[in-house]
């Protein structure tokens, strides 16, 4: 690594102010700080001694997603090929189909990020390190790559850069990409065939648990299958166990908000219990046990990796409780009552992304009023 460091230091003056390639300085800086910890320090104002920068935070989130990625690629092979094959056969089958999605996502997304950085003359934003991996994780495995690319362009340009880049966007970019794909290429985003890529096994059905319930059918998968992830679905959402491992990493490192995770879980449970209390003879999603709602579909993945996005989530402690609880409520509500969207987590999070600033505003205003009342009592 010393060799690489010396080479970067040698060409660095070419990209600094007055250098031959000054225009491309932001792109060089982005590569340099991605490989090495930045050596610049603050010159004024408050100084916080911390060895973690934004890129390291993003890398930690990526590491937390690795268990879901590995299992997801295996599960692609398992869902397509059926029983009777080895781990590596399943894994390679999935890798051949999933890795190109990652490559396209990063190539298109980072290309736009670098172009915006050069055009605006600022450093490359780090946020796409996570977004670029989240997008393929929440897409159907057989989504044509060009559709994925168009969705990425829309998410980065309209969902992120239009607001000013990383830290300024009001909507989760990965969910913006999925929403765009859902409404633009609906036949490729729903149904019982999109979750199983060019199946080579006879009689393989790609219908998800929620899709079966939405059609008033009964899923054939056991609770064990649902929890472990031996079911059809997008690459990242099927295995609750792998998602919990990722959640543990985020909570241990202090990156993920336990308040949002717990309140989202509680909100989903409450809404599920309400529906179970009423019951239905025409809608099996209403009768589906409340606790099973929490382990199928994108609920767990959205709870851990989407709802906790520090940019688009509520920022105040009380606001996080409200924000997460409402996500859980709306996720199950949309899932049950909307026949065209048996999965409601995406819409719930995007909806609460919009209202997160409002929630924080009223929480802050409430605190201010309480302090004014205490001040009046003290002065009385």
From TrEMBL:
The chain crosses the membrane at residues 57-77, 98-119, 131-158, 230-253, 260-278, 290-308, 320-338, 344-364. The modification FMN phosphoryl threonine is found at residue 208. It catalyses: a ubiquinone + n Na(+)(in) + NADH + H(+) = a ubiquinol + n Na(+)(out) + NAD(+). Pfam families: NQR2_RnfD_RnfE (PF03116). It is an enzyme of class 7 (translocase). Keywords: Cell inner membrane, Cell membrane, Flavoprotein, FMN, Ion transport, Membrane, NAD, Phosphoprotein, Sodium, Sodium transport, Translocase, Transmembrane, Transmembrane helix, Transport, Ubiquinone. Its cofactor is FMN. It is a multi-pass membrane protein. Its EC number is 7.2.1.1. It is found in: Cell membrane. It comes from the Bacteria. Belongs to the NqrB/RnfD family. PANTHER family: ELECTRON TRANSPORT COMPLEX PROTEIN RNFD, NA(+)-TRANSLOCATING NADH-QUINONE REDUCTASE SUBUNIT B. Composed of six subunits; NqrA, NqrB, NqrC, NqrD, NqrE and NqrF. NQR complex catalyzes the reduction of ubiquinone-1 to ubiquinol by two successive reactions, coupled with the transport of Na(+) ions from the cytoplasm to the periplasm. NqrA to NqrE are probably involved in the second step, the conversion of ubisemiquinone to ubiquinol. This is Na(+)-translocating NADH-quinone reductase subunit B. It comes from Namhaeicola litoreus.
């Amino acid at each position: 690594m010393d060799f690489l460091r010396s080479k970067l230091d040698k060409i660095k003056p070419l990209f600094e102010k007055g250098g031959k390639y000054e225009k491309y300085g932001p792109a060089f800086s982005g590569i340099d700080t991605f490989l090495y910890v930045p050596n610049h320090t603050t010159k004024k104002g408050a100084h916080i001694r911390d060895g973690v920068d934004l890129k390291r935070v993003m890398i930690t989130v990526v590491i937390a997603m690795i268990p879901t990625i590995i299992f997801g690629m295996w599960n692609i092979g398992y869902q397509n090929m059926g029983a009777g094959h080895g781990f590596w056969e399943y894994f390679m089958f999935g890798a051949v189909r999933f890795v190109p999605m990652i490559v396209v996502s990063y190539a298109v997304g980072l290309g736009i990020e670098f172009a915006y950085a050069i055009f605006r003359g600022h450093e490359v934003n780090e946020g796409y390190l996570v977004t670029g991996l989240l997008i393929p994780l929440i897409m159907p495995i057989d989504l044509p790559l060009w559709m994925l690319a168009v969705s990425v362009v829309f998410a980065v340009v309209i969902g992120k850069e239009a607001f000013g880049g990383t830290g300024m966007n009001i909507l989760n970019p990965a969910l913006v990409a999925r929403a765009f794909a859902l409404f633009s290429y609906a036949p490729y985003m729903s149904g019982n065939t999109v979750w199983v890529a060019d199946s080579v096994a006879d009689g393989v059905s790609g219908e998800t648990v929620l899709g079966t319930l939405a059609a008033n059918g009964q899923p054939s998968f056991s609770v064990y299958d649902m929890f472990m992830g031996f079911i059809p679905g997008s690459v990242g959402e099927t295995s609750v166990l792998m998602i919990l491992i990722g959640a543990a990493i985020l909570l241990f490192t202090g990156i993920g908000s336990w308040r949002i995770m717990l309140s989202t879980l509680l909100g989903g449970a409450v809404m599920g219990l309400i529906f179970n209390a009423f019951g239905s003879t025409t809608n099996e999603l209403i009768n589906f046990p409340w606790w099973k709602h929490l382990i199928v579909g994108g609920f767990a993945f959205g709870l851990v990796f989407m709802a906790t996005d520090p940019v688009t989530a509520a920022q105040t402690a009380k606001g996080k409780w409200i924000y997460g609880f409402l996500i859980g409520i709306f996720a199950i509500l949309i899932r049950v009552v909307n026949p065209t969207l048996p999965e409601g987590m995406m819409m719930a999070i995007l909806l609460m992304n919009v209202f997160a600033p409002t929630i924080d505003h009223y929480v802050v205003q409430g605190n201010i009023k309480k302090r004014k009342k205490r001040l009046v009592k003290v002065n009385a």
